[in-house]
Queue: 2 jobs
Job 1
Amino acid sequence: MLNQKSTETSAQDFYAWAASKQTRIEQVLEKVLPCANLAPEKLHSAMRYSALGGGKRVRALLCYAAAELCKTDFLIADAAASAVELIHAYSLVHDDMPCMDDDDLRRGKPSCHKQYDDATALLVGDALQSLAFEVLSQPNLTTIFVQQVGMLHLLAQASGSAGMAGGQAIDLAAVGKPLTQAELETMHQLKTGALIQASVLLGAISGTEAQITAVRTYAAKVGLAFQVIDDILDVEADTSTLGKTAGKDADSNKPTYVTLLGLAQAKLLAQQLYNDAIAALIPFGASAERLRELAGFITQRSF
Ligand code: GRG
């Protein structure tokens, strides 16, 4: 009974912490995004439409949790968390376009090109990406310039052709083709994992080398687990719960962990990745509780 109560209290603590960070990232993004009444109004309005008021903010939460663990300055954490969420928002806008995944629904509302138009959606993605680097390169963020350049380099690598954009290219080329598990893993490591890993590493920027090595392993496992769960949810969840079109992967004949391994094995893999992520945090003891809880949130999520 005592244990159950303390587990419940800890879950409540986590949800309260996550809600406070979700509010915080919303406020930071609200501030860095250009006002909708500033010219060019349509572009600015579409940028705000795409980046504000939606999403689980998993990348920001990972960034804040790693920052708390590694005692990274909170202004640096705000900049890093908003930068990764801006890159993520850009990727979703472009991914939904007819030339890519062609999806009409995102975060429970019409995707950007549906609400506006294709040209605007293209520019929204471009501008959100630039804004991410503008935020992270802002003067006075830190006096440790080597650190700031390192953060910019990290985000650039994670989002470019050696990261997210490269993974997307592999994904588009893989439609209708069988992939081995290793090929599927590489694709997801780039497409989704790289930005998730960058979110953790940017938050951990003030950590010691040993801390950074440990959170890098954690982030790699969590990043892959995120994608395995995404594949499972694509099969098991419905469109209204997901806020995006369910069953899309099967309909587009895309290789996924579920098509490759089957549902039961995919679930086992997610559990194994969760276990590995938790094991990577052992050196931190209790101080890594938020990262542990986030790994649980990511692998047990239903949307
Ligand atoms: C267009 C360069 C470019 C890349 C697109 C990330 C990506 C690459 C496409 C998104 C397609 C997709 C559904 C990928 C699966 C994993 C994923 C990123 C899901 C969406 O992320 P969540 O669940 O979204 O964190 P929210 O809305 O909660 O922020």
Job 2
Amino acid sequence: MCGIIGYAGEKQATPIIIDGLSRLEYRGYDSAGVAIETGQGLEITKRQGRLSKLQEALRGQHSPGTCGMGHTRWATHGKPSDVNSHPHTDCTGRFAVIHNGIIDNYLGLKQQLIAEGHRFLSETDTEVVAHLLEKLYAGSLLDTAKQIGAMLKGSYVLLFMAQDEPGTIVAIRKDNPLIIGLGEGENFLASDIPAILPHTRKMQVVEDGEVVRLRGDEVLVVDATGQIVEREPLVIQWDLEAAAKGGYEHFMLKEIHEQPKALRDTVAPRIDLSTGKVDLSELGMPSEVVQQLQRVYIVACGTSAYAGQIGKFLIERTASIPVEVEVASEFRYRSPLLVENSLVIVLSQSGETLDTMAALREAKRLGAKVLGITNVVGSSIARESDYVLYTWAGPEIAVASTKAFVTQLAALTLFGLFCAQERRVMAQEAVAEIVTALTQVPALVEQIIQDQRISLLAKDYASYEHAFFIGRGIDAVVALEGSHKLKEIAYVFAEAYPGGELKHGALALVTEKTPVVAVAIQPEVYDKTIGSIKEAKARDARVLAVVEEGDTLMQQIVDDVLVIPHTHPLLAGITAIVPLQILAYYIAVNRGCDIDMPRNLAKSVTVE
Ligand code: M6R
């Protein structure tokens, strides 16, 4: 994680860097820092805590200079503190470095450098790079950066500045994102597009192994073999308004409200309502690949992995292809035995999650074809997958994923139906029925978002420190995702179980102090969920159930009911999660939590 930005041009660098960091804070907010080249040397200011602490430190007296770089940190090596904040310098202060990623072999390098007389100040892995610069620099920052890149193991984007090369930033990248912004008389480097979008729409993605030398009037990119890289810039069509709060108190609330539009944008261009068919010709997936599919593996992390678990139901029940789901950090290390004609689907909102990227590469190494489902155009996962299906949710800024999740479910539904059509395993009327239902889902989500009762109930539930979530089938996965939301933004110790599992252990913890949230939508397991609810009620738990309209039974059994409109059971993951997102949001508001930036987390997890 961590966000980085670099600027070289004619304007004052600090305000541009601080502004960019404010849009990168979602990547980490343990500390922030800047290095500015002032003409007299490199001046560094860094502070533990949110960017506002750094802004306070710089207020009215930022170092003058037209070249500089900034960093916002998510701590990995060394706790959040001023000294562990980036930029890091060498013993002489002539070099500065910022870093996103992890240097796996830093301990060996550090020992060697200490033995050679270098003095380390921080506990970070990054500081070794500053001392390596000091040791190896022989007049060319570009050459030294290449040399250092060859010595490092791990994942990194590193930006380097040297007092002896004013107006210049050099960058190297491996397995972490880096974008170049091309301006008029000024150029930029950043972890992502929004950080520099106010200044230019012309962007270039840096690939692994490439080295960049950035100056105000020149950008040089060379690949690992030393060849100059000429690449057509991307012209970004969207603007920052899409990523601004737009009057909402938090990005999370805004993004919850954006779900109907995100769903429409993801679904509408891919269906033909007159025929009831799904058109995924954009994938370029040959028909024989779909015909021959023996197994689908879905690999992802966090909320995306929960979307994958629902994807298993969606694909198995539509396309009749067996699906296995696994979290990416396990898949990559367990030497998976992929059957012949496998498709690995990697799901990632950001398209940059390191574990998911590594799983993608492992899948390709094992000979499988990879379909990337991601929300970020041009992201690493989009670039490295064989086939790409974009979710059109627009920028998701809040750490807690909401609109990305529901659009992932929509994309997985479309993919399941597409395979069902190609393989002719489902009657066209049945496909059309789900397609029609899918087009109606955005309006249902709109209706749920208007339900004032959810925020009122949240007040009642905000004082509990523990909670259980239960459900069966797709409902069990909705329960998992609902508990995930409550944990990450409201800091409530929330555990989710398939209802039938409760009695095998967790029931021992159910008391009047542990409310149970039950998702009871799926018709085929509804009665079974009632059974689990009764077990919880018999232990004095307060039960809140999410049910569909027309359910008159549940009101008589539980303490509180949230009623959502009816949809096709396969699509109920999309509707049923919405009240749980809103519940978690308002519980977090009532508990005074920092909703968009929950403690210890970051939006895009680009470290292992
Ligand atoms: O960008 P990705 O979808 O790959 O991110 C995966 C997880 O880090 C992410 O879903 C995380 O669990 C969110 N904080 C969930 O709200």
